[in-house]
Amino acid sequence: MEENEDLNEERNENLSAGEPINEDSSDALTRVTGMYKDWFLDYASYVILERAVPAIEDGFKPVQRRIMHALKELDDGRYNKVANVVGHTMQYHPHGDASIADAMVQIGQKDLLIDTQGNWGNILTGDRAAASRYIEARLSKFGLEVVFSPKITEWQMSYDGRKKEPVNLPVKFPLLLAQGAEGIAVGLSTKILPHNFGELIDASIKHLKGQKFKLFPDFPTAGIIDVTNYNDGLRGGKIRVRAKIANKDKNKLIINEIPYGTNTSSLIDSILKANDKGKIKIKKIEDNTAAEVEIIVHLPSGISPDKTIDALYAFTSCESSISPLGCIIEDNKPLFIGVSEMLRRSTEATVELLKRELEIQLSELEEQWHFASLERIFIENRIYRDIEEEETWEGVIKAIDKGLKPHIQHLRRAVTEADIVRLTEIRIKRISKFDLDKAQQHLESLEEKIAQVKYHLEHLIEFAIDYFKNLKTTYGKGRERKSEIRIFDDIEATKVVIRNTKLYVNREEGFIGTSLRRDEYVTDCSDIDDIIVFTNDGKMMVTKVDAKTFISKGILHVAVFKKKDKRTTYNMIYKDGSRGPTYIKRFNVTSITRDKPYDLTAGNTGSKVLYFSANPNGEAEVITVNLRQAGSIKKLKWDMDFADVLIKGRASKGNIVTKYTVKRIDLKEKGVSTLKPRKIWFDDVVRRLNVDGRGELLGEFRGDDLLLIVTQKGVVKTVAPVLTSRFDDDMVVLEKWKPLKPISAIYWEGEKERFYVKRFLVENGNREEFFITEHPKSYLELVSTDWRPVIEVEFPKPRGKEPKDNLNVKIEDFIAIKGIKAQGNQLTTDKVKNINSLDPLPYEEPEQKETTEIEVVDEENVTSNTKGIISSTSTNDKLDTDNDSETQTTLF
Question: What percentage of the chain carries pLDDT values higher than 70?
Answer without folding.
Answer: 90
